[in-house]
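Predicting holo structure, coenzyme A bound.
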Amino acid sequence: MERSAPLAEPPPTRMRAGPADRQPAAAAGIHDVEVWRLDCARHQGAGRVFDSALDVPERARLRAMRRADVRLRFSAGRWLVRRILARRLGCTEAEVELAVGAHGRPSLAAGGIDFNLSHAGSLVVLALSTTRVGIDVEVTNRTTDWRAIARRFFSPVEFAAIEACDEAERRTAFFRAWTRKEAFVKALGTGLATGFSRFDVSIGPRPALTGARIDGVEASEWSIRDLEPGPGHLGAVAVHTTRPRVRTHDIEP
Ligand SMILES: CC(C)(COP(=O)(O)OP(=O)(O)OC[C@H]1O[C@@H](n2cnc3c(N)ncnc32)[C@H](O)[C@@H]1OP(=O)(O)O)[C@@H](O)C(=O)NCCC(=O)NCCS
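Done. Tokens:
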């Protein structure tokens, strides 16, 4: 079962389990934004399946990772990227050739489809689109001095807006803003080097890029949607279109 969020709807897009990934690639097509979620906690024994998707440089990266959960998440992410892209392209996973940008952003070497990956806790999420897309998930129930982070990285407008929220809402407001901002810089590809204070996102329930002071970026051309990827997590997707249609799916190895 899959769900398509109505156009221009501001509330969070919920993840739903379902067989959407079994649709023939040609019939499924590429919607404005597809979000795929994989919960590694349910697939602790799938390491070998995930590892089989890795190329030589990725295997070297995997060997350098000490924590078993981080290793599993990493290879699950690469498996997820190749699995979904192979279906869209009508090729095998091994034939999916990835390139890496100047700031480390992976992309499809042949172009035509953009994707972005994020992991947090046991979750791996992938966003896929025919236009530029970025995604972020964060674990929200960890100890975080969110106020210090917001003061340091957010714009004065955003920081003031969070402080203006009710005390009980500020922490969630911070994580909402953080995921919206990180999804946007991940779409740009420059990551945290972009400078989080050079653009503003909304703080309230309607996600939006409200302003940008970055060469070549017009805020009104971008959309942001919140995700609720699972208990204790928040997420967001940023996409270079004014009317995104977000579809969310779960996938199993
Ligand atoms: C990209 C970045 C924001 C990721 O933050 P994070 O919260 O730690 O991680 P997330 O789980 O959300 O995302 C990580 C994934 O994003 C992708 N990614 C990596 N670099 C990226 C970039 N510059 N832009 C967008 N996505 C990127 C990768 O798929 C990565 O997962 P993988 O390594 O398992 O494939 C952060 O690492 C960053 O700013 N990197 C840029 C560093 C840089 O400028 N390097 C320059 C020299 S290479």
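The chain is about 30% helix and 25% strand.
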